[in-house]
Specification:
2 copies of one chain form a homodimer. The first copy, chain A, is α/β, with parallel strands linked by helices. Chain A has 2 domains: 266 residues, Rossmann fold (3-Layer(aba) Sandwich); 132 residues, Rossmann fold, CATH 3.40.50.1100. Helices cover 42% and strands 16% of the residues of chain A. In chain A, the strands form 4 sheets. Chain A has a 7-stranded mixed β-sheet, with helices on both faces. In chain A, strands 8-7-6-9 form a 4-stranded parallel β-sheet, with helices on both faces. In chain A, helix 4 crosses helix 15. Chain A is globular. The N and C termini of chain A lie far apart (54 Å). The model of chain A has no long low-confidence stretch (mean pLDDT 95).
């Protein structure tokens, strides 16, 4: 198909939208390692997991066999409220860079959560409702996941309790207010509403909290009431499954216009966006049908793929969650408080960790100031003010396009633009004022944290 | 066409996007009154206006004859970055309200300015660039217009100076930061950088400023340097012309699916969104080809249509701008500081004022707390957290739909959803905390302000 016929933005018709999620685990030769019981170190059974997660989500979490899982009609209808998301040809960025590369991005920020998180939030809320539960609990750091879950719960009339990392709760009152608009109750973590919270407060009075601590509190609260369950916005197999809608839509749109990406880039914190975007393409690679270069981009201040170790670790600070085998910096690792936005989890999705371990994808880390330079450059030509998280992928996409400029290669680059930065203007301000730093952890810090991994 | 085939969101193909703006003045029997020279009270000539505005914009401002004006290709390419905007069928809201009405909204918030303002910003910046100017000056209140203009100028490499109402500058640091991301310089108004600013500061030390004052400063600064011009985001004929792209896209999409609206609703401050949305429909009404009910919705705290008078008035506090004939509360009128968001200009577009005066459209005012109730209700079912301005139209659309529920009428309601409220969370917080008030001006206050109108 000729160049000119590719529109700036490709929107699928409703009839073209995916009707099933794709489960990449079905095509993996080496399956991701199972979650372990933190007490016994034995693989968790469906029965044990069902105390934490809804039944259908447990089934999805453990399903390494079925390649496609139907998206219930109610979820597909909700998706229609904000999906399909556009696949955008970055004509303006290409021109600005004077690159022969063709750049595409899948933009997930056109909904009030400001990110892709809503794709899994509505799925998890739907199964909770279907099971007759009263509500769900969760944690949120930067706030996208909490917002997304609040939106989904409000739509389905489910109660939603969000434990928000205290430092974010205080620094981002607007995120909190959006959640309140959707009827969620938002508690700064650590709080005195849980045992684990009280313990952490006693040990570290005045702490600003962490994602791992907020997870512990949310899990504890869900465990107290059989009509509640805990839900999580990233890392888990089920979340990657739901997020596959990103990659599926992208692939359908690209196939429609005869576009084949050479390089696929995504930012990686817990891995939900990256995993979702690459899944169907990775499936082709695993089945030997096509080849792609996959690049995970993580912050240099929280480099789990590039400087972590592949081992079983705790997902939370309170050490009450299942153990997951993943690339990890150790559950005690804390990125510098100067690190803006999300992508600050110490570990990484087990599925992506296995794919990375098997050499099926690459990973790179990028420094914060160079990420914001890319963000501003992108905003000025493509119009969208990107989230700090997404801007990691922009940085890498620009770098790849500039390499093409040197070599003359006409590569097709695809990246995931997960969201918008409207609630991250404090970080942009620091960048403009020259007050942003790149706090890269020393080898000693990482070694110390990794030394505390559980012995399994 | 059967109900089921209408998608949740209708996106036009690029090839279906409008190639010309529609100028409703060409079809008006009674043309809007001309702008007058504030010193002589004579109609301003093109030559006089060209000291303030770019030449092509002057031609557009004065053109009451040509129904269609081509959109230059460069502007159409920029539009492709964030347009077509979706026409959304509010299936979820209809279901929640249990109304037989069909509700559609044209959503203009999916771009970083968060509003429809970008449609005219890029046009005005384009003509400035084409004329070889170095830059433009403007004012901004709530911040959408300043953001939109910064984006357009950054794209075209034009200098952009924004005078931002001081109270907004201080209360909305994030809006300011978005403008800085796009390279604009943002000055709190009143400032000591202008004569008029210094005069106002001397008379009212510690004032939080006003839109009328910021306009005066921006006009003064543009007047000093022949390579600069002043640009304005609403009120003017040229702005309504550019904003007709909203209505044109809407009409093309509706015609495509055989939908005919009975009621068309828009919020009205200076009138740019309302005028843009209704233009092509109003054209049909003026030509006797179809009939529609048009409803302008304004805040009860700044009710220029419903409680103002139709007369010549100043557009700015410093009284250096042209005089416009419009529905006005008097240029000294200031809405209560408790009024959130925009829609706080004392006057109204001359074109819309004439149409209203001729009985071609209706106007209603709504109170702030009921607007935020509607905003929250909408956000919870339609996913989008709306701007306070847009929520005025939501309030009226919900009220119309509830009337249909009583009467059983299956009306088709169309409203303009101009933008998102991500930078208005302070107002949402006040609403949630029960601290929001409805400050309706007394008859005495309005009479006093109107008594000061210039005698013409």
């Amino acid at each position: 198909m000729s160049e000119k016929t590719i529109p700036y933005k490709i929107y699928l018709e409703e009839s073209e939208m995916p009707k099933a999620w794709y489960n990449v685990r079905a095509d993996m030769k080496n399956k991701p390692a199972p979650l372990l019981n933190p007490a016994t170190h034995e693989p968790l059974t469906a029965e044990e997991l069902s105390h934490v997660f809804c039944e259908e989500l447990v089934a999805q979490e453990l399903d390494n066999d079925n390649a496609y899982i139907d998206i219930p009609e109610e979820i597909r209808n909700f998706y229609k409220m904000y999906r399909p998301s556009p696949l955008v040809r970055a004509y303006c960025l290409e021109e600005k860079l004077q690159t022969p590369a063709k750049i595409y991005y899948k933009f997930e920020g056109n909904n009030t959560s400001g990110s892709h998180k809503l794709n899994s939030a509505i799925a998890q809320a739907y199964y909770a409702k279907k099971q007759g539960l009263k509500g769900v609990t969760t944690e949120t750091g930067a706030g996208q996941w909490g917002t997304a879950l609040s939106m989904a719960c409000s739509y389905l009339d489910l109660d939603c309790k969000v434990y928000m990392v205290k430092v974010s709760y205080e620094q981002k009152p607007f995120r909190r207010e959006v959640m309140r608009t959707y009827g969620a109750s938002v508690v700064p973590s650590p709080s005195d509403t849980t045992e684990v919270g009280r313990k952490i407060l006693a040990e570290h009075p005045g702490t600003g909290g962490s994602l791992g601590c907020a997870i512990s509190e949310a899990v504890e609260v869900a465990g107290r009431d059989p009509s509640y369950r805990y839900v999580l916005g990233s890392v888990l197999n089920q979340v990657l499954l739901h997020q596959s809608v990103i990659g599926l839509e992208t692939k359908i749109a690209m196939d429609k216009y005869g576009i084949k990406p050479d390089v696929i880039i995504g930012c990686a914190g817990g891995g939900s966006n990256l995993g979702g975007l690459i899944s169907p393409f990775m499936g082709e690679k695993l089945r030997g049908e096509a080849d792609y270069q996959f690049i995970a981009i993580e912050p240099a201040s929280c480099p789990s793929f590039t400087r972590g170790t592949f081992a079983y670790d705790f997902c939370d600070t309170g050490k009450i969650c299942p153990l997951a085998k993943m690339y990890t910096l150790g559950s005690d690792f804390m990125p510098s408080p100067n690190h803006a936005g999300g992508l600050r989890f110490h570990g990484m999705s087990s599925t992506l960790s296995q794919l990375y371990h098997d050499g099926l994808m690459e990973a790179r880390s990028v420094e914060q100031t160079s990420v914001f330079e890319a963000a501003e450059q992108f905003a000025r030509v493509e119009g969208i003010l990107p989230a700090p998280e997404s801007s990691h992928a922009i940085r890498a996409a620009i770098d790849e396009a500039l390499k093409c400029k040197e070599t003359g290669e006409e590569k097709t680059i695809l990246f995931g633009l997960t969201g918008t930065g409207y609630f991250d203007m404090v970080a942009y301000e620091k960048f403009h004022d020259g007050e942003m730093s790149d706090d890269i952890p020393t080898d000693e810090v990482i070694a110390e944290s990794i030394a505390k991994l559980p012995k399994i």
